[in-house]
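Today's session is about reading a structure prediction critically. Students often jump straight to the picture, but the first step is always the sequence itself: look for stretches that repeat, for charged clusters, for runs of hydrophobic residues. Only then move on to the predicted structure, which in these notes is written as discrete structure tokens rather than atom positions. Here is the chain we will use throughout the hour.
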Amino acid sequence: MAVTKKTTTKKTTTAKPATKKTTATKTTAAKTTTAKSSTEITVNGNKKIETLKKEFNKKFPYLRLGIFYSYARQQVAKGESITGIDGSKTLASVRRADSGGTISISGNKKIKSLEKEFDTVFGLYCQVCYTDGDGHRYYTSGSADEKTLATFNAECEKNKCKKGEWK
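Below is the predicted structure for this chain, in token form.
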């Protein structure tokens, strides 16, 4: 930002009044972009699963992110218990061989969209999870999947859910 201010000062000193207005707009746009990008979590194949879970839980303290191999979806459908992927692994090391890309996670993203993106981009089964006030752990489903991450996190806080630990 100091560089931007220095540049803006130079332009203001030597520019015509119309340029001053344009420069101010550009500076404001840059600040808006910076603020927006700091509220998003960028996910690519190089990210370790434990790092992703920590970042997610820091942004949404009443939610957790469960990441599983794709075959876990069938186990859940059968009522079987599932185990998450080792957190020390990178997404690239566990994703489907023909997949890859980047996902951006922000508060205005719907839960179902995030879960679908993990399947599409990485070939992994992802579930947004929470723990109620009594300590019972749940995956989101049904109407909860239609909500945004920020909205559902706020609801969990209001309903006295426990702050999730990323593990």
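Discussion point for the tutorial: The longest helix spans residues 17-38.
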